[in-house]
Amino acid sequence: MNKTDQQYNSIIKICTNIFTKKMHDYGTAWRILRPSSITDQIYIKAQRIRSIQTKGISKIEDDIRSEFIGIVNYAIMGIVQLELGTSEQELASEKALELYQKYFLQAKSLMEAKNHDYDEAWRSMRISSYTDLILMKINRTKQIEDLQGKTLISEGIDANYFDMINYAVFGLIKIEFENAK
To answer: pLDDT-derived band of residue 181, with 50, 70 and 90 as boundaries?
Structure first.
């Protein structure tokens, strides 16, 4: 198993642990959210990371690491919502976790394919660049949502969510394993 594979798996465990604990506390209340609302929630988290990176301080407890975890988890929720649609009915915890793991592994497979082609260029990037790329993906997603998904040439909303997951994972790998700020 290579370094990236091991580190990515560690991040999966961290994010899954938070997702599972929050599901215990809140259930799957997020099922009521439309994908556009999830996109906005991811925007809030990415914008906060950028604000902390720019100002150098935060006034509330959640750190950049927590916000990246939130981006991963909300993006996966967004993909689930794209598949299942919104609902006022909660999803059984087992089913929610099954879908969560399925999409996280799909994100990892996408990362592995891109890593092959890009030779892990992400390792030479700054965490602030991941934040900016996530914000760009959010803007693209909002545009596609405004177009009701009718694009001429671009990938869909799900592809942007998958990219957001991977950029956030890259940030988490740098935070967890490289002591980068």
So the answer is: very low
Which of 4, 3, 1, 2 lies closest to 170, judged by CA?
A: 4
Sign of CA dihedral 54, 57, 58, 64: positive
Decide if 29 contacts 90 (C-beta within 8 A): yes
Report the C-alpha gap between 132 and 42 in whole angstroms: 13
| Separation between Cα atoms, residue 136 and residue 100, nearest integer Å | 24
Find, among 138, 106, 104, 110, the residue nearest to 122 by Cα. 110
> Average of pLDDT values for 97-115?
97
Report field, pTM of the whole predicted structure over 0.90: yes
Question: What's the confidence (pLDDT) of residue 97?
Answer: 98
The structural domains of the chain, with segments of one domain joined by +, span 3-178
> DSSP assignment, residue 58?
-
- Please report the DSSP string for 77-145 in residue order: HHHHHHHH---SSPPPHHHHHHHHHHHHHHHHHHHHHHHHHHTTGGGGS-HHHHHHHHHHHHHHHHHHH
